[in-house]
Design a protein that fits this description.
The chain is α+β, with helices and mostly antiparallel strands. The chain is built from 4 helices and 8 strands; from the N terminus they run βββαβαβββαβα. It has one domain: Aminopeptidase, CATH 3.40.630.30. The longest helix is centred in the middle third of the chain and has 18 residues. It starts with 14 loop residues before the first strand and ends in a 5-residue tail after the last helix. Bound molecules: coenzyme A.
């Protein structure tokens, strides 16, 4: 597959076209497969901040299409659907060999808690996801190491509920 960067647009419109087993995303009047959307030849390996409209399309595809639709959360595992992040949330995507394979989002300390006048008293890990094809390779654990970088000694919270797979790994021991 040819590896190319999405054209960045200030006005972002997303449409999903579902035709039985295939899904495409229309952005700026160009239809792209999920694989094309989740590939970016400019990305180095590692957890990178979402900093452009193209990155937001990648996060949307991972969180709202792959996770919410194709790899849906399991009630037994205490996994839940994810909402679109709030404006002040920090979003990072894990890139591996030019492919987006996971994400996490953080509610930053001092930002407003939705529908209240209160503010988060500490950074909160709000959502986390690694594609099923890449699980059990330590990428989930790397969320925590990435999160804690530069924040040693600071309190850190996790949004509830915490899924069983999150508890099971070495994350919270
Ligand atoms: C939770 C989640 C992010 C973990 O991702 P992951 O990449 O599989 O996590 P890790 O690989 O670091 O650890 C998972 C397991 O693999 C094991 N593992 C890690 N590296 C491994 C390796 N190289 N070989 C074999 N096993 C390995 C870990 O010890 C852990 O084992 P355990 O579950 O038996 O304790 C992932 O399961 C997920 O996206 N779940 C759906 C959404 C969700 O639950 N999010 C969390 C909300 S709180």
């Amino acid at each position: 597959m040819e590896c190319s960067r999405l054209t960045v647009s200030a006005a972002l419109t997303l449409d999903q076209l579902r035709v039985k087993t295939s899904v495409a995303i229309n952005w700026r009047n160009v239809w792209r497969t999920l694989q094309e959307v989740l590939t970016d030849c400019t990305k180095d390996n590692g957890w990178l901040h979402v900093s452009s409209a193209a990155d937001r399309v990648v996060h949307y595809t991972l969180s709202q299409i792959l996770y919410n639709t194709y790899e849906p959360p399991s009630d037994n595992e205490l996994e839940v659907l994810y909402d679109i992040p709030d404006r002040g949330d920090q979003i990072k995507i894990l890139w591996l060999q030019k492919a987006a394979i996971g994400f996490y989002t953080v509610k930053l300390k001092g930002t407003l808690i939705e529908n209240t006048d209160e503010k988060y008293a500490m950074h909160m890990l709000d959502t986390a996801y690694i594609r099923t094809t890449h699980r059990r390779q330590g990428h989930g654990l790397s969320i925590l190491t990435d999160l804690l970088q530069g924040r040693v000694g600071q309190d850190m919270g996790l949004s509830s509920p915490i899924s069983r797979s999150m508890w099971r790994g070495d994350f919270l021991k």
